[in-house]
Design a protein that fits this description.
The protein is α/β, with parallel strands linked by helices and 227 residues long. The chain has a single domain, classed as 3-Layer(aba) Sandwich (Rossmann fold), CATH 3.40.50. The protein has ten helices and five strands. The two termini are 14 Å apart. Belongs to the thymidylate kinase family.
Length: 227
């Protein structure tokens, strides 16, 4: 059985870059790793509806915190069987965003913290009701929101297809989301967390082998993997 690792952080934190480098580090170490990104835009009707709502379509759908959270949760639920198959076939399954993303953004929209009722509602919905696989380790990429926003703007300017949505343009929401993420990590919400501090994502290439080993070794005793 493979190790399930989720990479979390605000929009523009550098999750894709970090995820890609971690996968390459595992491959160098002879570990069979695969990356899955959420939301699955272009693959899941629920993810596409959520994206359209955040772009201003579907009336007031985006105004509903629970409605948006359910769409993102159903996107993951549609991939649950595939994730379980991947865990049987690969040493590591790395997720670029997972359930903690739904918890952090939903709580932040309600101005709640990591101990609030929305975080618990998301946990119950996704892990209890939808029976999604629980991550063995969660990695929080902690980057100043101002840096993340600048990256998101640069990405938008370089590629018209990557225009920022209503969440990404809301600096206050991003700040609150970062605070909820920090709280989730401090509480070891659902599973152990590893925090990668500000700036590390840009320098991780040289140190990616150490971080990759650290993440997998957190679950070595329980999953029986040999390294």
């Amino acid at each position: 059985m493979g190790t399930l690792i989720a990479v979390e952080g605000v929009d523009g934190a550098g999750k894709f870059t970090l995820s890609s480098r971690l996968v390459r580090a595992w491959e160098r170490a002879g570990i069979d790793a695969v990356r899955v990104g959420f939301p699955r835009y272009g693959e899941s009707i629920h993810a596409d509806l959520a994206a359209e709502a955040l772009a201003g379509e579907h009336g007031d759908l985006a105004d509903g915190v629970n409605a948006m959270a359910v769409l993102f949760a159903l996107d993951r639920a549609g991939a649950a069987a595939d994730l379980r198959r991947m865990l049987h076939r690969h040493d590591v399954v790395l997720l670029d965003r997972y359930v903690a993303s739904n918890a952090a953004y939903s709580a932040a929209r309600r101005h709640e913290d990591a101990a609030g009722p929305t975080v618990e509602w998301v946990r119950s919905l996704e892990f209890d009701r939808l029976v999604l696989p629980v991550p063995d380790v969660q990695l929080y990429l902690q980057v100043p929101v101002s840096v993340a926003e600048e990256r998101a703007r640069g990405r938008e300017q370089a590629d018209e297809s990557r225009a920022r949505d209503v969440y990404e343009r809301d600096g206050g929401l991003q700040e609150r989301t970062a605070a909820v993420y920090a709280g989730l990590a401090a509480r070891s919400w659902v599973s152990p967390w590893v925090v990668v501090e500000s700036g590390a994502a840009d320098e991780i290439e040289a140190d990616s082998d150490r971080l990759a080993a650290q993440l997998v070794d957190r679950t070595a005793e329980s999953d029986g993997m040999t390294r």
